[in-house]
Hints:
The protein is α+β, with helices and mostly antiparallel strands. Helix content is about 40%, strand content about 15%. A two-stranded antiparallel sheet has the order 1-2. A two-stranded antiparallel sheet has the order 3-4. A two-stranded antiparallel sheet has the order 5-6. A hairpin with a 2-residue loop joins strand 3 (about 45) and strand 4. Helix 4 (about 130-165) runs antiparallel to helix 5. The chain is elongated and about 95 Å long. The two termini are about 25 Å apart. The chain binds zinc ion (2 copies).
Amino acid sequence: xxxxxSAPFGDDxxxxxxxxxxxxxxxxxxxxxxxxxxxxxxxFRYAGEMARAHRLxxxxxxxxxxxxxxxxxxxxxxxxxxxxxxxPVTPRENVLRGRDWAARNAMPTHCSNGHELTPENIRMYxxxxxxxxxxxxxxRDRKHHARRVSELSKAVVQAADRLRDLQATESDLAKVDAxxxxxxxxxxxxxxxxxxxxxxx
Length: 201
Ligand SMILES: [Zn+2]
Ligand SMILES: [Zn+2]
């Protein structure tokens, strides 16, 4: 997708109330957040008529849409109104492309960890599908891990306190310090790195 000659987000050839309905996605799509048609295309009232927002955006910000042509979403996101993600094609070509893409991207039936993707087991994360069971397992492991760490950390502190209470020599006290250090490391280990991407398909 050539973006070199692309109109900027917020271009004033479209009214302000158009842009307030658009959310810029990390992957570059201009996501329509208002009403969609039944088949998922963005709807926008313009000049007294109901228009398809992506066609309007293409026509006003990019180029004329040749008579009888459909706009193919190169990004495969029907709710996207970014002109550089659109390409005029014949309606026939549009259907063929959609079919090819659907065949190539047939919805997986299981996640990468083998959990079945029933509707109940699917959650949406930033617009993509994720496996709930994976998420649950990670949360459970993390809780288990945190509990384990806190038990260990308690044990280490008790041991250190006990050692200090005994008639400790200089070298014993160095051991006490070492124990406290171990305890600190344990606590740090308890903050498990973020796993927001958990359950990606
Ligand atoms: Zn897009
Ligand atoms: Zn899973």
